Amino acid sequence: MPSSFDPQRRMPRSGVRRPRAIPAARPRGGAPRGGNRPVPILSQASDQDIACHTISVLVDNEAGVLARVIGLFSGRGYNIESLTVAEVNAQEHLSRITLVTSGTPMIIEQIKAQLGRLVPVHKVSDLTVEGPHVSRELALVKVAGTGEKRVESLRIADIFRARVVDSTNESFVFEIVGKTEKINAFIALMEPLGLTDVTRTGVAAIARGCDPI
Questions:
Q1: Is residue 119 located within the same domain as residue 53?
Q2: Region annotation Disordered: residue ranges (predicted)?
């Protein structure tokens, strides 16, 4: 019987067919293979900008009011950069708290709303957004030095219109009144001249015009 073996026919080396490679799937949207699709960059909303605000709070002049206001800020993690309080109406027993804080518009609105919920609070005004206002701060700055540094401190004080309220052979105490930026600049210039101590009152502010705060 003739053999069916054909010497011209070759068998695969391993005797098993190799699997066919599956082509990579084409990205959707017609992007070329291997290309990176652009990722949109989400820009931060403008309402996330942190700004400094001066807030005036009219309260009853009674014990514990200031502690409640400070407790509201500390309990929620809000920062108080400056705070002043004094009686403004002796007949009605009213005091005014002027505080400077910073945050996003949403945070500032939360602060004003929560201050307004306190029982002894009569009125909350955001002077930064409600209109033009006048703000001032007083600072006492002590500078110790002799020789050229002593002369230079007097020259700078004259430029900033700060006046000497105490003087010894080795030190001066200057009183300066103005905006916070002015006082910060004066203190920075006094540091290399022998600045030893600073006391600041905090910001006092009032709205311009004939309308009350």
A1: yes
A2: 1-41
Quick one: 101 and 119 in the same domain?
A: yes
For residue 112, the model assigns a pLDDT of 94
Fill in the amino acid letter for 151: V
Higher pLDDT among residues 126 and 50, named by residue = 126
Last residue of a domain, one of 131, 159, 178: 131
Q: Which domain holds residue 177?
A: 134-207
First to last CA, the chain: 121
pLDDT, tens digit (0-9, with 9 covering 90-100), for 70-121: 999 988 888 899 999 999 999 999 999 999 999 999 999 999 999 999 889 9
CA–CA separation, 13 and 181 (whole Å): 87
Please give, one letter per residue, the 3-state secondary structure of the chain: CCCCCCCCCCCCCCCCCCCCCCCCCCCHHHCCCCCCCCCCCCCCCHHHCCEEEEEEEEEECCCCHHHHHHHHHHHHCCCEEEEEEEEEECCCCEEEEEEEEEECHHHHHHHHHHHHCCCCEEEEEEHHHHCCEEEEEEEEEEEECCCHHHHHHHHHHHHCCCEEEEECCCEEEEEEEECHHHHHHHHHHHHHHCEEEEEECCCEEEECCCCCC
Q: Please indicate, yes or no, whether residues 157 and 106 belong to a single structural domain of this protein.
A: no
